[in-house]
User: What shape does this take?
Amino acid sequence: MSGPGDGSGSLLAGFWYPVCAARELGRRPIARALAGLPLALFRDEAGAPAALVDRCPHRNAPLSLGRREEDGTLACAYHGWRFDRAGACRRVPGLDDPGGAPARSATAHPAMEQDGLVWVFSTPGPMPASRPFRLPNLDDPTYTTVRHARSLSGSLHAAVENALDVPHTAFLHGGLFRTPRRRHTVEVRVRRGADRVEAEYAGEPAPAGLAGRILAPRGGTVEHVDRFVLPCLTQVEYRLGRSRLVVTTAFTPVGEDSLRLFAAVTFRAPLPGWLLVPLLAPVALGVLRQDARILAAQAANVRRFGGERFANTELDVLGPHVGHLLRRAARGEPGELLEVPPTRMEV
Amino acid sequence: MSGPGDGSGSLLAGFWYPVCAARELGRRPIARALAGLPLALFRDEAGAPAALVDRCPHRNAPLSLGRREEDGTLACAYHGWRFDRAGACRRVPGLDDPGGAPARSATAHPAMEQDGLVWVFSTPGPMPASRPFRLPNLDDPTYTTVRHARSLSGSLHAAVENALDVPHTAFLHGGLFRTPRRRHTVEVRVRRGADRVEAEYAGEPAPAGLAGRILAPRGGTVEHVDRFVLPCLTQVEYRLGRSRLVVTTAFTPVGEDSLRLFAAVTFRAPLPGWLLVPLLAPVALGVLRQDARILAAQAANVRRFGGERFANTELDVLGPHVGHLLRRAARGEPGELLEVPPTRMEV
Amino acid sequence: MSGPGDGSGSLLAGFWYPVCAARELGRRPIARALAGLPLALFRDEAGAPAALVDRCPHRNAPLSLGRREEDGTLACAYHGWRFDRAGACRRVPGLDDPGGAPARSATAHPAMEQDGLVWVFSTPGPMPASRPFRLPNLDDPTYTTVRHARSLSGSLHAAVENALDVPHTAFLHGGLFRTPRRRHTVEVRVRRGADRVEAEYAGEPAPAGLAGRILAPRGGTVEHVDRFVLPCLTQVEYRLGRSRLVVTTAFTPVGEDSLRLFAAVTFRAPLPGWLLVPLLAPVALGVLRQDARILAAQAANVRRFGGERFANTELDVLGPHVGHLLRRAARGEPGELLEVPPTRMEV
Assistant: This one.
């Protein structure tokens, strides 16, 4: 559980991860895992999400099987010990004073709700100064936003690379998404920062097929940026005239080779959202299914061969940089800044 | 497989364990596991149960797939080698003399039938001087006895502690069993011996709810003793006037975190057994189901966290002593004698 | 994965193994495992079978999910890299020159079609001088040949020994196959060579039961030879007058304790094949089912006991020699030549 290359979902210290949609967490506690760390999520008396490591300090029953009490604590289902959002034991039935002994405390992680998601900070303790990544355009009425969540088999590195990889789309999604009829030369610029890397594509023609015709009825050249942001976020942006499309995806590691995907697709187009969403959603979900299938097969194959052995070409624009950032972050170090001179590639 | 704290069912040397109900073992051999040790059980020509390690010395086929021959031996299903109750190879089809070579013998454990159960001695070899634990009151016509058997997920230590633990009943079984309406102070006395530990509760009111009203229609104070006896037995006794209730339970370790429970509930009450059993059995089975669920969740949680980390309070009356006895027995040592001065607790 | 005694299917270097029936491999690539080594099988532009290690060098997706292109290459399903039957990367979509870098090559094993089976050579590289084992009598019109394939649980060593073991047939298949009514003394001669061992039985009466009566209506004495040939083949031959029966079986190791059996039963008898096959096939399949059941039970038992512990008698005629050959071959050494003086045994 130590890096992107080992196929496991590894938890990076000091980052916010989305763990569920806000509406999944109601009055009953729920269980979610973050890179193998089991969490009990509940809402305190003010309705704010709270996250305790899912193990009662008394007899190690899962706290997520417990219940939210009226005082905003989470009571273990076994003996009824109660814990507040900071993990302090507030009551042991049968004892006058539960005592504040650390051995009787649950471990608490900072948790908060933002942009429709419940986010948990990967390092236990008090609320940090940093805030979770913001989803774009949620408050702009000229944008339509669609959400999707699903589970995936695969390593974080492989899923992020897949989400930001251009060449596979022509082959794996041939017909659905991009059509390989004509080849175009585009110019790519890569910039890597402390917590992110992005690739900017210039000279790319508007997408072919239905999606392209809807977003850009008269064709044209798109501005296209692909971006990875630590610990597990990707963003794909298209601009064409006044049209915009931004796909933001979090790939939260759940366990060994298992991820939870939270996607927000936000766009502005010549046609209204209520018309476009039913037209485009089936295509997007079809693409996602194809990606999920190949990622699962890739992960299973890496597992049965006992590890990854990848060969890169210059078409693998962002994957190696994502690996660099994940490996550095696993050691608690920021990514090394890098600006790659523009290169040309065919799409 | 070495102690109570490792979550595995560990086999203690030199003890009798029940492995099945006597009526489960007929003319056909059956397979049962004792703390990970596979056994083939069969009845010899006199009908007495016999236990061989479930591996033919020839080609390691499971002997439990074989058949009981007319001469009282167990014949392997593969090549027909025959073994007597002591494990000696009595016949190899095609050989005139099977020979008495130890390499051709199966390993035999002492086995006997008692109180409706088949018991196996955990150390192979000749019949020991010791006898299995006796179930109480089976021959007393003023008592009614009900049996129950089922499988459980959980460690032996956790299941024994659960069976003898008072505080969880108010919370986990709230409503079904004890009602937490009023709190009472009782006095607890703990005595630990070489192979057992017991807690005697004084000043405990008769149980509330249906069960209490039936057993003690006019209320009163019960005498209540909880007891653990090595290697895997618990006993809960209630006395109130002429009424008696004794629940004896064996938690036979089967494999990693799996147990087979054999319970005998024996009682004498103002109302006749044939009336009480159908009234009380559903409640008792409901309590057992709740316990089984929390024990399974606890065991799975301990496993995914890589081990136990328990915090004790003075309400955990017997659990630590049970752990002491199991750890000592795993090293072949008797428990240290101990008499804990009476303490008070609220129930 | 190093020898016959460890219960795993181990891949011996420098041998041909059958991996599927020829008709299983059509235009679509298929996945097969050879002793834990995943292979993608496909047919090149000439229709000849080819075998690549089932991992794309680019992102490790299974090549068996890909498709056969018009140029006879296998294209990976993820990014469309194309490989020829020698594993060379012939095209990377988006790159002008895929380059011949070894890191971009897939690993190829020699493969060929022979006698209705696809055979793969266990050592990657160019086509070796040796050829696969020939199935007998396929071109002789006086013979009838029946094929059967199925999966088995068990170690290679145990399955081979079972196929060549005489004593178990009276017991395990009693009634179906040989009947233990009368005992006969036969003379056995064992000869072991560099890559094979065989036992010749003299003085054996014609088989009892239906099969015997059909093959040899007037009884008589059969000539019977049992044979193991490295890496995984067995042959059982019966001759009686002009009648012949040869059962050739390959037990290809697939994974840990899993095998794929390819059997060819070829015979010449007084009655025509079209009459005998429907009469005898149910009996043969019944014998095979019984063997498969005991082999699976044996393998599971060896696994739960942590390894084999076998006791041999003089009735275990070929098993120890098979073990010798497999262990030597695992070290790359030929078997030691051995001629065992004739011994007598009862059947």
About this structure: DSSP finds five helices and 19 strands in chain C. Chain C has a mean pLDDT of 90. Chain C has two domains: 4-121, 144-346.
